[in-house]
Amino acid sequence: MHPKILRYLERFFIYFILLIGTWIMIFPFLWMVSTSFKSQYEAFSFPPSLIPQKPILENYIRALTIVPFGRWFLNSFIVASATTLLVVVISSLAGYIFARKDFRWKEPLFYMFLITLMIPGMVTIIPNFILIRTLGLMDTYLGLIFPYTSWNLAMSIYILRNFFSAIPRSIEDSARIDGCSELGIFLKIMLPLAKPGIATIAIFSFLYGWDEFTWALTATSSLHMRTLAVGLALFHGKYLTLWTLLSAGMVIATIPPVIVFILFQKYFIPNLMAGAIKG
Amino acid sequence: MVKIKLINLTKRFGNVIAVDHLNLTVEHGELLVLLGPSGCGKTTTLRLIAGLENQDEGDIYFDNMLVNDMSPKDRNVAMVFQDYALYPHMTAYDNIAFPLRNRGYSESDIKKKVLEVAEMLGIKELLDRKPRQLSGGQKQRVALARAIVREPNVFLLDEPLSNLDAKLKTQMRAELRKLQKSLGVTTVYVTHDQAEAMSIGDRIAVMKDGKLLQVGTPEEVYENPKNMFVAGFIGSPSMNFIKCIVKLRNGFYVLDCGDFKVNLSYERSREVDILEGEEVILGVRPEDITILPERSSNAISASIELIEPLRPDMLIHLRIGNIKIVARSLSNLLWKPNDHVSVSFNLRKLHIFKKNGEKIM
Amino acid sequence: MAKLVARSVSPIILFLLPALSFYFVFELFPIFYSLYISFFEWHIIGDVRFVGLENYFKIFSDPVFIVALRNTFIYTIVTVPTQIFFGLAIALLLNQKIRGKVTFRALYYIPVITSWTVVSLIWKWIYDPVYGFLNYVLLSLGAIREPVRWLQDPSVALCAVMLVTIWKGIGWNMVIFLASLQTIPQSLYDAALIDGANRWRRFRYITLPLLRPVIATVTVLLTIGALNAFVQIYILTAGGPLHSTEVINTYLYKNAFSYLNFGYASSMAMFLLALTLTISIVQRKVLSKKIEY
User: Which domains, from first to last, does chain B contain?
Assistant: First the structure.
């Protein structure tokens, strides 16, 4: 029976390690949630405990009032949604062209888009700052939305081009024979069939707009125009020890991305493959 | 070269019994074919012998050694997989050398052995290539070489020819048999192709739903199938099955098949032990049906529905009343569809089965 | 009127125009503009003076920049292989016959989908010298005798920051490796088992070689990411203490938006660009040499 025992031991060992790893991965989040329900007194008491002994809701309430937290939430939402919309529309149009039409500059243009995936974001921060200031878009929604859109185009076009390419030409041809216009083909056939791709880039654009920090820090200056990412960091910078309040804010800030992830989990992995494997 | 004994071998996957109390012996140096439809348990049995799976009940012996708890490596078996399982990133040489390297042979020994085996299989010039640069037949030879080079106790082959085209299949069949005979290694060969089994095996073990239905030489399973499934599975085109009721007339048995009757000859009538009125199934192979152009007293009248001119034979689909049968005959340009002919059965080659499939005679 | 225009202009141009315009204005143009700025001395308010390559020479005689460069390299060389190692290890474990794969995968992936801001702030709290959870655990276990000032002690700050990056990245690696592992046919492992290969040999001669393309791609992507790290460092330590966690990006940002030295900062940006492109190209060449099929 020896081999059988060995096998059970092995299984046990694997589960054990995996569970330890899982715990390490999610513990910080549990800690954040836990802190958000603690009073300042309890958060700073010794020994610290994971489950708050006297949980309070006050942090959540105060988070929404002490700083323009609600406003930040709204800003992030507007910026992320608008970015997503623009990215989806623009990259669908472009991706379709790259997938289906041939023209002289196709290859070079496409590679030009791809190259930018390797270019560090910091390289363009200064010029973009000057640009936005010149255009008078500092501290505005557009000042965030436009650059965000631009920076997401390369990856989105790449992904959508792959999805469009995978649609068999015979479907398009039969639509043409059935009398459909070119625009009609694009709207009624190509787009619906590329839905998974569109969903993927929509998700990534939204999360990008929601989480982005560096540019939001640079392009906004007044408190009420900040996005969540920047606002939270600034809040911490100002109230260094108000971890409880901050945690509540972070929990609220994390809820939309988590919802997106849970609902659209299946879109995350394929996109990684598309993006990563063909690096 | 060992004798393999499977005793009461049973393997379950969840609620499904893949191998059901299998008892089977493979003799020294024999090529035994495990034949059956997909899902009958033949591949699982092979994997149990290899040690890739562990059985739930039963024992496996190599000669007198109980190998139940031994790892595949220690059982010293070699396996050729259906998809060849060649390591795609290694050259053919490295693929063949792999098992030897795992056992710690010296590089010079390895080189000698690999070249020897490559010579035997005619793949010496291919040794530098990677699997993707090889054709199906070549890949198969490399897989074989990898199996042979270790001089194992047992060869296990899992549908090795199923991925080859028809012509190559026939050629490889003969080659495999020759190879096995010259090496003399006990071999278990899995396939669902009955023609393959018949041509290559010393003995055939027919399996269905995890159970062993019959084991015997090709002649034995062909001439004397023990039940309807074996009878129908072996032989192409398959045996004709006709439902009949047993009647007694003047001490002779008569099979009343509805649209015609068959009188069993006196000797047969004595061997048989059935009750009057019992429903049985008459089995007759296409080549045991003779077609005569005119009516004769013993013959049964039939009409030709369809002729498949296979050449040199013909398959003739006949209709007797509501019963359809297929007969095999040498080419004869005189017959056409809708002709009326007479058929007679070779009474010595009749198989009678009970309703549950068991053979009566 | 719009219809007339639309019909005369090729649909190709029409469809590409939005993408190209955005791209040109906010991506392409800035790159060249950045190069242009780097040749000037420009403090956001005040004179602009052409200085040619002077900024570039200044970079290399700037002691802080040298430290930042060194830190960037250390950061890259430590975090990239470590993430790959742990990601691969977990993927291998998860690839066995165990239940709950999907759940495990999702849980390991949660740090990946969380924003850098939130992750950095959480860890900052955990790293707190007096009230943070990490010190509490380590002290209780007796692993340390005194609280470690993770983000305030120059000798450990960089390690603390790297740990956060590694922690956040493992899930991403793991998911990619797991998907790749699942494309390796089981029959190869069966054949190897029969060929007498033990677990280590099966890993070394089958798994690893077949994973090489993926590992190569992942390495390139992670390296680019490491060279561009900013948010977590900015929030955790802002480059301190005493520049022990200063990387090129943080120093660049400081020069641009704290010291308002655009020209100088741009030259750093250009340097970073050259560095990133060079390393990516070299890596690709080296790693793809070995991959053949």
Answer: 4-233 (3.40.50.300), 240-354 (2.40.50.140)
CB pairs under 8 A between A and C: 241
Round the average pLDDT of chain C to a whole number and report it. Answer: 88
What's the CA gap between C69 and C75, in Å, rounded?
10
Q: pTM, whole model, 2 decimals?
A: 0.81
Q: What is the DSSP string of B58-86?
A: EEEEETTEE-TT--HHHHTEEEE-TTTT-
Return the residue of B nearest to C195 by Cα: B99
Nearest residue of chain C to residue B49 (CA atoms): C194
Which of C27, C126, C253 lies nearest to residue A151, judging by beta carbons?
C27
Q: How many CB pairs under 8 A join A and B?
A: 4
Does the residue C35 lie in any domain? no
Total number of domains in chain C: 1
Separation in Å, CA of B227 to nearest CA in chain C: 35
Asked, as a colleague might, if the bond just before A68 is cis with ω within 30 of 0, I would say no
Measured CA to CA, the distance from residue C263 to residue C245 in angstroms comes to 23
Residue C249 lies in a domain: yes
* B70 part of contact set with chain C, CB < 8 Å: no
Q: Is B8 left (phi over 0), alpha (psi -120 to 50) or beta?
A: left
Output the pLDDT for position C108. 92
Q: Does C206 touch chain B (CB under 8 A)?
A: yes
Give the chain C residue nearest B78 (alpha carbons): C194
**Residue C204 within a domain:** yes
B259 to A258, B244, B249, B255, B307: CA distances (angstroms): 75, 10, 18, 11, 22
Q: Is B69 within 8 Å of chain A by CB?
A: yes
Note down the domain range covering C263: 54-288
Write down the pLDDT at residue B250: 73
Q: Is residue C264 part of a domain?
A: yes
- Of B254 and C103, more confident: C103
Of C134 and A269, more confident: C134
Q: In the predicted model, what is the mean pLDDT of residues B99-110?
A: 88
The structure tokens 């590992």 sit at C215
Show residues of chain B in contact with C187, CB under 8 Å. 81-83, 85
Q: Chain B window 90-119: which residues touch C at a Cβ cutoff of 8 Å?
A: 90, 98-99, 102-103
pLDDT classification of A51: cutoffs 50, 70, 90 = confident
User: What would the mean pLDDT of B198-224 be, rounded to a whole number?
Assistant: 92
For A126-170, write each residue's pLDDT tens digit: 999 999 999 999 999 999 999 999 999 988 999 899 889 888 888
Mean pLDDT for A219-240 is 89
Write down the pLDDT at residue A279.
Answer: 32
Residue B325 pairs in a beta bridge with B318
Q: What's C126's domain CATH number?
A: 1.10.3720.10
Confidence of residue B359 (pLDDT cuts 50, 70, 90): low
What does the block give as tokens for C86?
Answer: 């742990």
Question: Is C161's pLDDT higher than 80?
Answer: yes
